[in-house]
Amino acid sequence: MPARSIGTATISFGLVSVPVSIYSASESKASVSFNMLHKKCGTRLKQQYICPKDNEVVTRDETVKGYEFAKDQYVVLTAEELKSLEEKATSTIDVLEFVPLATVDREYLEKVYYLGPDKGGDRAYRLLAAALKETGRAALGQYAARGQQHLVLLRPLNGVLVMEQLHYADEVRPTTEVTIPPGDVKDAELKLAKQLIDQTSNEAFEPTKYKDTVRERVLETIQRKVDGQDITADITPSTDTKMLDLMEALKASLAREKSEKSEKSEKPKKGESKRKAS
C-alpha cells in the first residue's frame, strides 16, 4: 500500500519554490499499550483531576494553564494569550543555509519525514535532490506547524528528499554533563578491542536482520490469553552477576567469534551433502 500524505508544504530557497507532500517516514510498533481496569469488575477506569487543597474533583472547564516560575508559584496564561503566542503555520519550509551533511551531529535528530513532489514540483524537486547529493550538503531551515516553529534539515536519500526535524541547540544536553572517571586506555586492551570490532563488522547497515523480540513475546502472550491458554514463564532471567576482567572478556569474545565463524565455514552448503552421499 503506497504511503499516504499527512500534509503539504513548499520548500523555498532563493527564488525557487518546490511544492512537496509530507509523508511519515516510520510506523512505530515499539510499544504495546495497556488500559487501566478495575480489578474487581474489569471495567476501564477514567482519569480525573483532583484538587488536593479543596479535596474535590475538578472538571476540564474549570482548569487553566499555569507556568511554574518558582517553587509552587505559577503565572496563569489564558487560552487566548496562548493562542496569540503560537507560530502561524505558513506551510513554507524556509531554507536559511546549506551545510555539509557530515557536520550535523546525530544527537540533534528528533523526527524524520519523507518529502515527495507535489503538483508542478517534479522538476525543481529532482534538481534540489541531485544538487544536494552532488555537493554533499544539506539544507537547513525552519518550518512552522501546529503552532510551533521547527528546525529542519533536508537531505537526499535514494532520490527522495528527507526532512529531519532537529532539536534546537538549547534542547540538547552537552556531553560534559556525563561524568567519566580519569584513566588510560591500555594498548593491549585496545588492540584486542579493535580485533573484536573487525571480526564482528559488517560493511552494510542491515536493519531487517533485527526484530523487537520483547514486543513479539508480549503479543504472543496476549494472544494466548485471548485464546484461553494458560501462561507460564518460558524464560528465567539469569542471576549470574559475575564480572569478568576486561582482558578476559575481550579474549573470550574473540575466541567465541572465531569459533562461530569456523562452524559457519565448515557447514556444508545446500546440496553439497547430497552430492557427497551419492
Describe this structure in words.
27% of the residues lie in helices and 28% in strands. The chain has 278 residues and is of the alpha+beta class. It has a domain of 107 residues: Ku70, Chain: A, Domain 2 (Beta Barrel), CATH 2.40.290.10. The strands form 3 sheets. It has a 7-stranded mixed beta barrel with strand order 1-2-8-11-10-9-7. A two-stranded antiparallel sheet has the order 3-4. Strands 5-6 form a two-stranded antiparallel sheet. Helix 3 runs parallel beside helix 5. It is extended and about 70 Å long. 8% of the residues are buried.
Instruction: Give the strand order of the largest sheet, numbering strands 1, 2, ... along the chain.
Output: 1-2-8-11-10-9-7
Number of helices: 6
Topology pattern, helix = H, strand = E: EEEEEEHEEHEEEHHHH
Question: What is the general shape?
Answer: extended
Count of β-strands: 11
Average per-residue pLDDT, rounded, comes to 83
Strand content is: 25-35%
Low-confidence stretches: none
- Name the CATH architecture of the domain at 7-27 and 86-171: Beta Barrel
* Helix/sheet category: alpha+beta
What is the CA-atom radius of gyration, in angstroms? 28 Å
Helix content: 25-40%
Largest sheet, if any? 7 strands, mixed, barrel
Q: Could you name the CATH topology of the domain at 7-27 and 86-171?
A: Ku70, Chain: A, Domain 2
- Could you name the CATH class of the domain at 7-27 and 86-171? Mainly Beta
Whole-Å distance between the termini?
48 Å
